Each structure stands twice: as structure tokens, then as C-alpha cells.
Amino acid sequence: MSKESSEETTGGLAELNDKELVKRAQGGDLPAYDELMRRHQGKIYGLIYNMTSNQQDAEDLVQEVFLKGYKVLDRFQGKSSFYTWIYRIAVNRTINYVKQRRNRSALSLNDLDLSIESDPAYVELSSRDTPFRDTSLSEMQEKLNAALQTLSEKHRAVVVLHDIQGVPHEEIGKMMGCSSGTVRSRLFYARQQLQAELSEYTS
Amino acid sequence: MNRQKKKLVQRLAEYRPSDTLPPDLQDALQKHPDIQAEWQQTHRLVSLLSLKQYERPGPDVASRCRSSVLRQLRSVDSEESYPFFDWRWDGATPLLRLGLAAVFLALIGLQFVSSPDQGARTAGHAELGSLTFTPSAPAEMRRAAAPARSTPIDFSAIGITNWPAPTQQVGVHSLVNFGQ
Question: Fewer CB in 10 Å around end: N or C, chain A?
Fold first, then answer.
């Protein structure tokens, strides 16, 4: 089966759902796992990058997460979606990593896509009479990332997952191994702290 | 903050700024302008955070990550040993462990009760003069042959002259007996 599927075109694998791809990957089918990576890599990268604010760390951790995912794939029983399962690995690995490197955090940011200037949120924020209007894009980006880094790992994870990636509370609870009430409470306090840090842009 | 306000704030936390609030929440907000102001601030904060989506990795990052993972997984696959050598004690079922322990103990037990000609048998064959006895030779002949290998070493040949003389020439004695 493994040989047959490895000969399959990427187009064929793209038609399969995550569950079928996981089944194949559990049988040692690397192209199936590659397809899973292709589907979820972007979001996982975004989560790790926004947690670390460091592009090199994000790249390394994405690789670690998918390597670990493949090694423990036989333990995946399908009780949750593959997406939730791999996210859980990513969240835990990133929280541990951020805790370890706490004293040597350096920002190394990705480039900003210039289409940001036509985003309604950006247009609205820059139309108000706040320092935001006079701030350069790179300065704004740096302030935003620095503010995120002031949060604790768990609070930062909740903000990134909910406010940046749009993951629902219940799903975040599953990923972080806590109740959705805890997620809401963390989100509330994290937002309060961020508002204090970024008050010049938000008030 | 009183209970009603706290509940309102908690409910609001479930929504993203882009969401349309349900009518009852909108009414509640109008009754509490301070919370409404807070919600608007939250709205702006989340709008600001949403701009982080425009921080995008370079075009080759995704393919670089994937190909690196695949390369590492392929090298792990090719280095994979046969399952026999991969066997781990902690991976075995209790019954299998018990069975293996029993076999091991039985082998040790057999070692203790093995016959005196075990040495000759395991050595493959014993030599006596120009005669060679294989393990298939009669046990009596092999028993006679085994001591012949214990012929004393001539230490004078390697320069040791004050070595005490052996009291019994077992090898020669056996040779004589065999000749009879």
C-alpha cells in the first residue's frame, strides 16, 4: 500500500481528507504526511512565529513539530482532528521553548506585506487621531511584537490563537489542555495587559 | 465591577471585533457606556493584532521546511534496523516477558547440569596425537581425548626455568591408558 500511494500524484493525495491521509501516513506513507504538512504548515508557522517573534526560531520549531508529529503519529487515535492534535504539539513545544530562552529573546521579524495598507482595520486605525497615524509600518510592527513578548507564554498563546488566528475558545481549550472558561479568562487578562502596553494606539 | 457588568464583559470576550453582536448584547452595551468604551478599545486592539497576519515568511520558507522534514524522515527510515534488533524489553507483553525469563533461567539451569564432556563437545573436536576426534566420536574416546589437551606447557622454551615441576603428567597418563 505504501508503495502504491508513494507513486500517487500529489493531486491524488490533495483530494483525500486529513483522516485518510493520517491513516496512510501511519502506514509509513511519506507523501501522505507531506500533504498533511502542506495543509497545516502555514498556520503552525504563524502560531510559532507570533509566539516567538523570531523567524529563525519559527522555522526550526516548525520542523521539530512535524518531525515529532510523524514519530508519534501511531499514538494518534483520531479522537480529535489532526489539526487540533498537531497544534497541541506545536503549542506545547513552543511554550517550553519560549520558557527556556526567556533571557535571550531577540526580535527577528518577517517582512510586512504592503497590502496591509488597504486592510480595513489598518485604514480605520490610521484614520483616527492617534500616534498610530504617524508611526511607520516597521515601528508599529516592532511595538506590536514587543508588547506580545511581555505576556506570559500561556497568555500569549491564547491571544495568538484567538485574536490573530481566529481559533474558537473550545478548540484552544483542547489544544492547551484546559477548559474554555480558563481560555476566556486568560484572554481577558492578556487583552488588558496588551491594552496597557499599546494604549497610545488603541485609546 | 458588579456581577452584571462582569457577565457582560465575559460574554463580549467571545466575540471578535469583526463579529456582529447579538441585539441583546448591543442593548446591554448601550446601558453601560463604560463597558462600551472598553469594548471599543478591545475592538481596536484586536484590529491592531489582526495586522500581524501581514507579517509573512519568505516564499521559500514553506518548501524549505517541508523538504528538510522529509529529508530527515527519509534518512531515519533508511537507517531503520530490522524489527528483531529493535525489540525492547519494555515493549513486550507481561506474558512474553515471563516466557523469556523462563527460557533464560532454563538455559542457565542446563549449563549447571551439563555433562563433563561438554567442553570437548563445544570445542568442536579434540586432538590426540595424529588422531582427530569429532563430536560424533564415542563418548569414551572423547573423554580420553579431553585431558590430553592439558599437557603441561614447556615454560623453559620461553625462558622460564624455575617453574615448579608438575606432580602429575595427566596428558601422558591418559595417552598410556588410551593405548591399552
Answer: N
CATH code reported for the domain at A110-202: 1.20.140.160
Mean pLDDT of A62-68: 96
Beta strand ranges found along chain A (DSSP E): 111-112
The residue assigned the cell 563445544 is B122
What is the 3-state composition of chain B as percent helix, strand, coil, each rounded to the nearest 5?
A: 65, 5, 30
Average pLDDT over residues A112-119: 89
Contact A30 B44 (CB under 8 A): no
User: Quick check: B45 and A46 CB within 8 A?
Assistant: no
Interchain contact, A198 vs B16, CB within 8 Å: no
Residue A4 has pLDDT above 50, yes or no: no
Q: A3-101 has which fold?
A: Rna Polymerase Sigma Factor; Chain: A (1.10.1740)
- Every domain of chain A and the residues it spans: 3-101, 110-202
Look at A110 and B57 and tell me if their CB atoms are within 8 Å.
yes
Q: How many residue pairs bridge chain A and chain B with CB atoms within 8 Å of each other? A: 117
In this prediction, residues A99-123 reach a mean pLDDT of: 84
3-state helix, strand, coil in chain A (%, to 5): 75, 0, 20
Query: Is residue A193 pLDDT above 80, yes or no?
Result: yes
Q: Give the 3-state DSSP-derived string for B140-157, with helices as H, strands as E and coil as C.
A: HHHHHHHHHCCCCCCHHH
pLDDT bin (cut points 50, 70, 90) of residue A3 is: very low
Q: Would the CB atoms of B66 and A121 count as touching at under 8 Å?
A: no
Query: Which residues in chain B have Cβ-Cβ distances shorter than 8 Å to A67?
Result: 69, 72-73
Nearest CA to CA, how far is B142 from chain A (Å)?
56
Sign of CA dihedral B87, B93, B96, B97: positive
Gap between the Cα atoms of B143 and B126, Å rounded: 10
pLDDT of residue A107: 86
**Which of B5, B15, B45 should we substitute to test contact with A (largest number of A Cβ atoms within 10 Å)?**
B45
Residue A118: Cβ-neighbour burial (10 angstroms; 0-12, 13-18, 19+): exposed
- Walking along chain B (180 residues) 10 residues at a time, the average pLDDT comes out as 79 74 90 87 90 90 92 79 54 78 89 61 49 56 57 64 55 48
